[in-house]
Write a structure and sequence with these properties.
The complex is a heterodimer. Chain A is of the alpha+beta class. Chain A has helices spanning 22-29, 74-77, 81-92, 102-115, 121-128, 138-150, and strands spanning 2-7, 10-15, 48-51, 54-57, 70-72. Chain A folds into two domains: 2-76, Beta-grasp domain (Ubiquitin-like (UB roll), Roll); 77-150, [2Fe-2S]-binding domain (DNA polymerase, domain 1), CATH 1.10.150.120. Chain A has a five-stranded mixed sheet, sandwiched between helices. Helices cover 30% and strands 22% of the residues of chain B. Classes of the chains: A alpha+beta, B alpha+beta. Chains A and B meet through helix 1, helix 3, helix 4, helix 5 and helix 6 of A and helix 7, helix 9 and helix 19 of B.
Chain lengths: 152, 749
Amino acid sequence: MAFTIKINGSEHSIDADGDTPLLWVLRDILEMTGTKFGCGMGLCGACTVHVDGIATRSCITSIDSIAGAEITTIEAIGATATGAGIQKAWLDREVVQCGYCQSGQIMSAAALLASNPHPTDSDIDEAMSGNICRCGTYGRVRAAIKQAAQSK
Amino acid sequence: MELEHSTSQIPGPEQSSGEMDLSRRRFMQAAAAAGGGLVLSFSVPWAVGRVAATGAEDFAPNAFIRIGSDGQIVLVMPYVEMGQGTYTSIPMLIAEELEVDLEQVRLEHAPPDAKLYGNPLLGGLQATGGSTAIRAAWKPMREAGATARTMLVAAAAMRWNVDPSTCHAERGAVLHPPTRRRVDYGRLATEAAHMPVPENVTLKRPEDFRLIGTPAKRLDTPAKVDGTAIYGIDARPRGVKIATLAQSPVFGGRVKSVDDAAARAVKGVRQIVRLDDAVAVVADHMGAARKGLDALIIEWDDGPHAKLNTDDIITELEKATLASGPVAQNIGDCDKALASAASRIQATYQVPFLAHATMEPMNCTVHVREEGCEIWVGTQVIGRAQEAAAKTTGLPADQVVVHNHLLGGGFGRRLEIDGIVRAVQIAEQVEGPVKVVWTREEDIQHDMYRPYFFDRLSAGLDAQGMPVAWSHRFAGSSIIARFLPVAFNNGLDPDSTEGAINLVYALPNLHVEYLRVEPAGIPTAFWRSVGPSHNVFVTESFIDELAAAARQDPVAYRRALLDKSPRARAVLELAAKTAGWGKPLPERVGRGVSLQSVFGTYMAQVAEVAVSKDGAVRVRRVVCAVDCGTVVNPDTVDAQVQGAIVFGITAALYDQITLKKGRVQQGNFDTYQMLRMNEAPDIEVHIVQSSEPPGGMGEPGTSAIIPAVANAVFAATGIRLRQLPINPDALKRATYSGGITNSKSEGNL
């Protein structure tokens, strides 16, 4: 059967099994490749999107579980003030190396700041420890989150 | 960031220009939205070498620079971007001499052409690895820029009928100050193309550098924060199908039988491809492909390695070290010095197999047709990718087109072409293009691993505790022997021994032997920090053992051996001073130091670790002092050290690949852990100013941190770690009694 999902404000009808992970709908059906595949088990955070504002691992989120929800992806996060602030901080701090995990890092960070505008170090640890960066950009990720929080 | 596909006029096998145009528009819009003014352009690689076809008025004095009459300045990147910042630092070298700003250039991936883009430090192979890019590019890229600039100045001088020496170049234009004339490069392109190519060019003096040595913004960052950057896994040629695969769980095994009835019934599954040693499920999307894969019932013939366990390999390596092997370095008479030493110390060390675990899992997109093969991938070896596809398909190499992409991590994994061959084998059986994406489990369990090494050391100390003899013999796989056989001579290669020979210390008698042993049943490959990832852990732990045996401070002990190595001494002293070496620490907290000269770079690190009562090690702080010669982009040096340290701590604390009945026992990030944000230390990087030629920076940070952590654990607990990863159980037993004289050991002394 077809499922209707709402992504970045637009509704899409998806003809796939209900247990299909949102990640593959985004990447392979809707051709939105900004959201990345890392582990398929919710262990690395590369696939993080927002479901009604909550940072969510799209690789373990089936499309039959998100009816009526507002999905936001990296392609649209810059349209929010928080997202744009995070992206600017990422540029100012030169966070990125290979960059593959950074869509997920930014989505996790944007969800954190949207709900907690002035996070402590332990808040940052809690929100960001689900996002693996093999290039080891953690120090700059932390600094960029703090910068974005300061300028809010 | 702009994605510029398919600008070539060469008839190629791919005719998907409609879709490509869409992509191009999308990315031009993205670039405009990003507002950076700086765009990356990714042309069809095979367009570049013959790009004259796209504009007879272009000025292309060499393979790295192309200036269009429209003013567009394109730089072709001979080394690939995998996070190490080479797509910023190489442009800096060219732009410095070409006299353009980084904001004025576009970048292109180089096509496969080893004659033009071969790496002189890797035997002319077109490859990015071994922390060689800046070292290899330092002179040629500046010369390329200077050549182009000289020709542009000559063209302007001819146009104005003035002496070229009265003109100079600045920010993409030639100026003639006496007459206040100025002309942009683009308007000189046609004339410059007709100027003679100068045989010799004068390079700028370091004091005149505008870009080199000044922190530069990375050119690839804007596209990496808004989701528009395109990695190999993001390639989407029109009509692409998605495949995932199961390869024989035992290396060397084969498919015996496949029951694919349930897989075929999965919605979206299109085809099951059976190979001798793998089965792939081709589907409309990865969700269906994975579901299909799970539904397959495959019976394997495990082959000759069905009973192989890691212990068998360790035994093989350990035995090998009992006999002598090729001598990598000999100074003085080690045996004699050992015999007459006041005291002797012996130890054995071991390091495990390690997976790369790039965040972008292995993938490759291929379209095989009768007339040609087209590949979309992120690779560190584009020429080898082309050759491998040609060999697999039987097509001539010039009918294989490889589109290179940004790499979601390399670390040596993408120096190998096994994934490309595999994708071509699958694509040969599929109508239309197919993207083969490995699951994370497949990526970990069918990696090519950092080899296991077994090391045996002995040292003799004089009455004052200083080393008079140093003997080191080790056994393990040689990657070079397989990867670049021309560099493997007399049983030795420069990578396996780096960090074990040419130590920074003045040792009067030293003897180092390396035995190449290739354990069957597990493939090996380069891994970040390659030979030094193993050797520096061993040598810097062992020198720490000697200091402890001599009851001396580890920093003072090392410094006493550095009279002839001022660069090493300088980084050691800087790291120790800034780390507060010697200042008191709480119980079960310790500092460890390491010092090395590898990849042409001197580095010292001080790690501060806390060991909990249950044996868990937390690295709290790392101070690094680095002398990498002339610095191109200081911000990248800092970033590479930080990243390499996290990479090394991950290895020190967590990771090993083990085999049981021939099968890799680790599979995903639950069983092959990565250091995470909450575990990452504070890292300080101090760069020593130097006018020496540049050294490599992608890898030294990884080899240096591992012994620094192990030595810090010793300082905190008195337990000497001679085997990685660190075993918390061994540290549970530790009852800290303070001081450096307590030398209980863990492992197999």
